Amino acid sequence: MDVLSKRAEVRLFKDRVRDVEEQVRRAAGATEIINSRSYVKWPEPVLARVPSLRFITVCGIGTDAIDLVAARSRGITVSNLPGRTAPVVAEHAFGLMLAVAKRAAWYTDQIRQGRWVKKDLLLLSGKTIGIVGAGPIAQQMAKLCRGIGMKVIAWTYHPSPERSRQTGLEFVSFDDLLARSDVISLHLPLTDRSRRLLGRNEFARVKPGCVLINAGRGALVDEAALVDALNSGRLMGAGIDVYEQEPLPPGSPIAKCEQVVLTPHVADMTPEGLELLNEGVVENVLAFLDGKPQNVVN
């Protein structure tokens, strides 16, 4: 913040924005915005009410909180932070997978209730993980999983032999990934194309007893279909850091499922991860102020 304050007037808001009217008031007169949380949305009607705005940087990879087409039409440049915290996010996804496979949350709850019960765990070594995506986080996740002896397959919208060589990922068809994977881990950005990529039809085709890990975006999955797949036993469990609605509403069906490990969209919230993100957004703003915008997505 000290670095930015030398170049511009800085307004910092530390508490959660309550509604769109407050969001617009906070942004009034701003030329650049650091959007530090993905639940703060910038659709076209909101962008239209901040005519001074020329630049937005998100504090991470996903840009689904911003209407990129509307931003472009209004001359607003949007930047993100690709790959900067990939090791941090991948480690969190890996931890969710281990917690689900070993039923850590379920056993903790049982013991707290005075129950000494036992259920089979999932041995991950020798099992197959299907990674959906091929970016830096997906590649780091593959590396971690190979480290414990897992087989790795992957799916992406744009597979090629060259990309396979560059990433070290074996690309398969989406149907093949669903059928072969003991664990499916989602590492895609949210777009109109990827929205609800996993729904009832897809869960019906997964390997029985599969584990789902989602540290990408909640809306990559049809949450109601996921709940049904968990409650029916089609899935052994799920580790989830992201949700269709955030914060997760009280009484949400996913929170009532027995074999889930849930975290509140915190995959990059380590001191190291936050430092990387804070540095990154400052660098993005400075680059824009210098007339050389970087990491531009629109």
The global form is: globular
CATH-defined topology of the largest domain: Rossmann fold
What is the domain tally?
A: 2
Individual helix count: 13
| SSE series | HHEHEHEHHEHEHHEHEHEHEH
- Poorly predicted runs of 5 or more residues: none
Radius of gyration: 20 Å
Write the CATH homologous superfamily of the largest domain: NAD(P)-binding Rossmann-like Domain
Fraction of residues in helices? Answer: 25-40%
Major sheet: 6 strands, parallel
Strand content: 5-15%
CATH architectural grouping of the largest domain: 3-Layer(aba) Sandwich
Strand order of the largest sheet: 5-4-6-7-8-9
Description:
The protein is globular. The protein has helices at residues 2-5, 20-27, 44-47, 68-73, 86-101, 104-112, 136-147, 161-167, 174-180, 200-205, 223-231, 253-256, 271-289; strands spanning 32-35, 55-58, 77-79, 128-132, 151-155, 183-186, 210-214, 235-240, 260-262. The protein contains 13 helices and 9 strands. Helix 5 (86-101) crosses helix 7. The chain has 298 residues and is an alpha/beta fold. A 6-stranded parallel beta sheet has the order 5-4-6-7-8-9, with helices on both faces. A 3-stranded parallel beta sheet has the order 1-2-3. Helix 4 links the parallel strand 2 (55-58) and strand 3. The model has no long low-confidence stretch (mean pLDDT 96). It has 2 domains: 2-83 and 270-289, Rossmann fold; 86-262, Rossmann fold (3-Layer(aba) Sandwich).
Descriptive keywords:
298 residues, alpha/beta, 2 domains, 6-stranded parallel beta sheet, 9 strands
Topology:
Blueprint: H1 2-5, H2 20-27, E1 32-35, H3 44-47, E2 55-58, H4 68-73, E3 77-79, H5 86-101, H6 104-112, E4 128-132, H7 136-147, E5 151-155, H8 161-167, H9 174-180, E6 183-186, H10 200-205, E7 210-214, H11 223-231, E8 235-240, H12 253-256, E9 260-262, H13 271-289
Helix pairs in contact: 5-7
